[in-house]
Write a structure and sequence with these properties.
Elements: H1 15-29, E1 37-38, H2 41-48, H3 52-64, E2 68-70, E3 76-78, H4 81-102, H5 107-122
Antiparallel strand pairs: 1-3, 2-3
Helix pairs in contact: 1-3, 2-3
Length: 124
């Protein structure tokens, strides 16, 4: 099993975000199983022709999202991200609900705004 990443320098999305998105999608879909050891920052940067800081930024974002975990000198691994991702999403949803309530937005309008945002991000 190998990590398959394609970074398009002409895309409108920053390389670190392309990297973050692809690793996240592969981890969440099971293409990269829990416990899969990711390449080192330097190794992946060399392989993809990116700056090490770009890969490090993507890894930091993935770790903050609970997708990967760094185990010191042992390396960086795909984490059991489902639970962490669900927790983060739940916290974000609760914060949104509290904010719109403070703003005086009706429940129905708050749900419609959230659905619009989800459609804008996911498409459809």
């Amino acid at each position: 099993m190998t990590l398959k990443i394609a970074v398009d320098p002409d895309a409108g999305t920053a390389p670190y975000e392309q990297l973050r998105t692809q690793i996240s999608e592969q981890a969440r879909s099971g293409v990269l199983p829990v416990g899969y050891r990711l390449p080192t920052v330097r190794g992946l940067a060399e392989e993809l022709g990116l700056a090490a800081n770009t890969v490090a930024k993507a890894y930091r974002a993935l770790e903050a999202d609970g997708v990967i975990e760094t185990r010191g000198r042992n390396g960086t691994f795909v984490a059991a991200a489902g639970d962490a991702a669900e927790r983060h999403a739940g916290v974000a949803a609760r914060e949104y609900a509290e904010q719109v309530r403070r703003l005086g937005v009706s429940r129905g309008r708050a749900v419609a705004l959230a659905e619009d945002a989800v459609r804008a991000v996911y498409g459809g």
